Amino acid sequence: MEVTQLAVDQIIKAFLFILFAFFSVFLTLALFFYFSRKKIVKIAVEKKNQEIHYQKEILQSVIQTQEDERMRIAQDLHDDISSKLNIVSLNTHLLKTPNLSESEYNEIIDNVVNLTAKALENSRRIAHDLLPPVFEKFGLHAAIEELVNEFSSAKNVQVKYTNSLDFSYLEVNYQLHIFRILQELLNNSIRHGKASEISINFVENNSKNTCFYSDNGVGFDMKSTNKKRGIGMQNIDSRVNFLGGKINIHSEINKGVQIDFNF
Ligand SMILES: Nc1ncnc2c1ncn2[C@@H]1O[C@H](COP(=O)(O)OP(=O)(O)OP(=O)(O)O)[C@@H](O)[C@H]1O
Ligand SMILES: [Mg+2]
């Protein structure tokens, strides 16, 4: 009888022990999942915050570029058009002066003709800077060819451009972003890199439209430049972002710059 009672006690003890062990394991697992979930949520929130911060930076640089563009156009209009039309206006008023000699009359007319010709030429240049006419008429490929030729002839640099993509199916907006990216890259290669050779190559890479860009200039230190990225590179970032693509930038001092972006 006593032996049976002892066995029952032991079974109960063992049962309680197993129950306790189960409970401990359950509690540990529950705590583990609770905290790891909290950590995952925290990481996700941090990532989202970073994304928002990045979007804000992009927006800021877009606004900044717009303002810079406006200021540049305003200056161009003021210096190259308004000031000339002002003098044209003054000269035409002078024509009303009574008793003008023939030579005075001719001088005024010459002034008016010259100044209007200059104002016309400047207004063409301003319009060209805003949107090259070749772009509207013949699309991105022709516009890049023209850009490359302009750089090659004016800036003492050899620019090699090859393209195996068809841009015609791209929205004009997209084409314009790609054009502006190349303008900035070329300007940087000349201004900062002092490059003598530049290569631009559009190909399909991993079934994505990709542009490979490189120069043989002085390059830059990626670590220090990342901190002082100018508006130019930020704009490129936001344009590539708009194109739904990714950009890779690589450079080392004295080893030029290698950049690729897809869209
Ligand atoms: N091709 C290049 N060769 C050498 N350094 C370069 C090149 N491209 C960019 N850099 C470096 O990266 C920096 C940032 O370039 P970014 O275009 O953003 O600004 P920026 O050209 O100085 O000014 P901006 O806002 O007028 O473009 C440059 O100041 C330069 O130091
Ligand atoms: Mg720049």
From TrEMBL:
Record's signal peptide: none
PROSITE patterns: HIS_KIN (PS50109)
The protein's Enzyme Commission number: 2.7.13.3
Ranges annotated as spanning the membrane: 12-35
Any one GO cellular component localisation term in the record: membrane
Catalytic EC class: transferase
Recorded superkingdom: Bacteria
Reaction catalyzed: ATP + protein L-histidine = ADP + protein N-phospho-L-histidine
Domain Histidine kinase: 76-263
A GO MF term: phosphorelay sensor kinase activity
SUPFAM superfamilies, per database record: ATPase domain of HSP90 chaperone/DNA topoisomerase II/histidine kinase (SSF55874)
Keyword tags: ATP-binding, Kinase, Membrane, Nucleotide-binding, Phosphoprotein, Transferase, Transmembrane, Transmembrane helix, Two-component regulatory system
CDD domains documented for this protein: HATPase_UhpB-NarQ-NarX-like (cd16917)
Stated name of the protein: histidine kinase
